[in-house]
């Protein structure tokens, strides 16, 4: 869903709703940055757990373990070689830097929260129903009709891996 908060999408919907696209986008951007800033520790924890899960899965898939004793020994070795605090601190520092630098596109790339659109305030700013998925539905419908916006968004998604 984060790609729906890209500048061209927000401005496209705002323009369609006869709102000041720049003002709406700047407000959405600030709301997202504030929300992300409040969620940095939770996001760092989630990203840390996700990284550990990926590394463990990769480790288990790459090892030829034929017996439980081999598996037990390999897993003990894996866990002993992990520095969970260092992984967490890396994410915490990285995310703190994003918030401090107000790096909106990078925040969208890493922020994993289903409430991001609601907390951005974009629906309210565009006078859309905040109790439904009105913003999301309108954005997708408009993008189907607006090739310029669609092309810009596809390029941004590819570039920033949002």
Compact description:
The chain has 162 residues and is mainly α. It contains ten helices and no strands.
Fold blueprint:
Elements: H1 7-16, H2 21-38, H3 40-62, H4 68-80, H5 84-100, H6 104-110, H7 116-120, H8 122-125, H9 134-145, H10 147-160
Helix pairs in contact: 1-2, 1-9, 3-5
Class by SSE composition: mainly alpha
**Count of β-strands:** 0
**N-to-C terminal Cα separation, in Å?**
9 Å
Strand/helix succession: HHHHHHHHHH
Major sheet:
none
- Report the radius of gyration as a whole number of Å: 20 Å
Give the proportion of residues in helices. over 70%
Count helical runs: 10
Commentary on this structure:
The protein contains ten helices and no strands. It is mainly alpha-helical and 162 residues long. The longest helix is centred in the N-terminal third of the chain and has 23 residues, at 40-62. The relative contact order is 0.20. The model has no long low-confidence stretch (mean pLDDT 89).
């Amino acid at each position: 869903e984060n790609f729906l908060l890209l500048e061209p999408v927000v401005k496209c919907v705002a323009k369609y709703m006869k709102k000041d696209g720049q003002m709406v986008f700047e407000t959405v951007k600030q709301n997202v940055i504030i929300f992300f800033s409040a969620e940095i520790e939770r996001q760092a924890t989630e990203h840390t757990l996700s990284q550990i899960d990926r590394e463990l899965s990769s480790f288990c898939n790459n090892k030829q373990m034929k017996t439980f004793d081999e598996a037990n020994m390999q897993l003990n070795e894996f866990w002993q070689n992990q520095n969970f605090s260092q992984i967490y601190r890396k994410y915490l520092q990285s995310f703190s830097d994003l918030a401090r630098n107000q790096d909106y596109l990078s925040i969208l790339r890493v922020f994993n929260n289903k409430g991001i659109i609601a907390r951005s305030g974009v629906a309210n700013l565009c006078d859309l129903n905040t109790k439904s998925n009105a913003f999301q539905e309108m954005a997708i419908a408009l993008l189907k009709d607006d090739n310029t916006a669609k092309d810009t968004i596809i390029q941004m998604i590819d570039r920033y891996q949002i």
